[in-house]
Each structure stands twice: as structure tokens, then as C-alpha cells.
Predict the 3D structure of the following.
Amino acid sequence: MELVVVSGKGGTGKTSLVGSLAALAKDKVLVDCDVDAADLHLILHNNVQKTTEFTGGKRAFIIDEDCTNCGICTEYCRFDAIKYDEYIENATGGRYWIDEYACDGCGVCTRHCPEQAIDFREVISGEWYLSDTPYGPLVHARLGIAQANSGKLVSLLRQQAKLLADKNRLGLILVDGPPGIGCPVIASITGAGYVLIVTEPSMSAMHDMERLLELTVHFGIPMGICINKSDINSAMTSRIEEYAKKHEVKILGRIPFDPAVTQAQLAGTTVVEHQTNGVSKSIELLWSNLNEEFKARVNSSLARETKR
């Protein structure tokens, strides 16, 4: 079973919740697919065992000795990435250069350079890691500044996690997904066994939850909802529950606001280990409900196989 925990917006408490689920679950591989801002490892006390470079895209580089300073490339660059500096000279005068943070890697400049003076090559976009934690193996990554192909990196992490789960005969892959509904999220949930949407009782969170729910329905993935800080706005919590009921999505957890969550973060640990009552009981109930969902999925699959 691959459980992907996602949220329509950042700041809903998704990663803190995944950390607690990691402490409660057994026989699992942990994955942090929020490659643009990975932070699950901060509360899991990871010890990196393997580091691998990630090549996710291409960048353009001007070959100074071949450049004649015609400037044609600047006419085609739609990202304003090609700069001219009269104080940095090559053989023909001032020098054109490419801002690596502005270059989108489209390659248009290479097509239109009459002197073939622009090299278009793969670049290292980041790194991915395999770590040990007290809760099990963790696969995570760091995408470089202004680097693209986060979706490709997310797919790579999920693939590595599946290989690790198969090798060690682990029955669960627990994924901390990225926020939003963009490419990294799509790469995180496609083909997953179950999606848990974490939201909170605010207008913006509910709006983003609706978009994420539509995306998950589009891919036909079973899902449930967890309302974090559910007691800070009872009216909005009721609206979320009504929306879920209308769309036949189960509310699997209602986590009340509790300062113990922040205290656990400051202590660098999970909240279910930081305290054994209060909000921890709500998280334990959420995990119990998720297990019931998993069992229902397995039984449903077995029933279909029997009919065949």
C-alpha cells in the first residue's frame, strides 16, 4: 500500500502529521516528495547513507570563443536570460552570457544561433538521498535553486521507495507529498494506493482542498480527508464536512489545535512521542481509520480477483 499525504496549500500541518504516522506505522518506507522544500527529515533524525546526483534538465551555455556578438539569440529568448556585459570581453568585444537562474532550458537560442556558439547540455539539478531513521528507511531529495523537473525527481523517489520496499518486504510506503495541485503533486499521487488530503478550517484551505479533491478524483484514486486544527473555526469545519459528504469522501480524522504540536517541533520529535494524550489520541484514531481503509481496499481487490 502506498499512502500519499497531500494538502492543497502549505502550512496545514501535513509534514508534522506524516511524522506522527511514521512513528505509529510499522514495516514501511518513508518518502519526502516535497522536493522543493523537503523538511520531513528534520523530525525523523535521519542519517544519510547514500547521496546521488540528480540530472533533471538542460541549460544553455555560450561558447565565448565561437560567439561573434551578433545578439540574435537575445531576440528569441522569452525569459530574458541572455545578458550582455561590455565590461567582460571576449575576442570580439563585450560578452554575451546566460543567467542560469533565468534560463528555462527551452533550447530556442541554440536553434537560432548562426555560429552554433551556444552549447545545450544537461546540468545537475539536485541530489537525492537514502537515509536511515529510527522509524525506517527514508528516501528524500533536495532540488537546486531555480531548477526544473521536480516532477521527474518525485517519480524517481517513488520508484526508489518501491524498490526498497520490495527488497526488504515492507508492506507500506508512506509519502509526504508536496502542497498544491501542480506537476509535483500529480507525480506524487499518480498510481498511488490511497491519498489522504490534509486541510484546515479556513476559506483558502477549503478552496485548495476542493481543487485537490477534483484532481484526485480525475485519477481515480481512493481518498479521505483529515481536518487539522478542526476546532479553531467550527463553522468552516462544518462546511468542509458537508462538502465531503456531498462528494462521498470520508472524514478520517479531526485533529484539534494543540500547542503540543509546536512544542514537539521545537524538540525535534513527533507529537505522538512528545505526548501520549490530547492531540496524539486524535492522530492515533486517524491512523486506525486509515488502516480500516487499507483493509477495505485489500478485501475489494481480493473479491475482484475471486470473480475472475
Remarks:
- The chain has two domains: 2-45+133-307, 57-124.
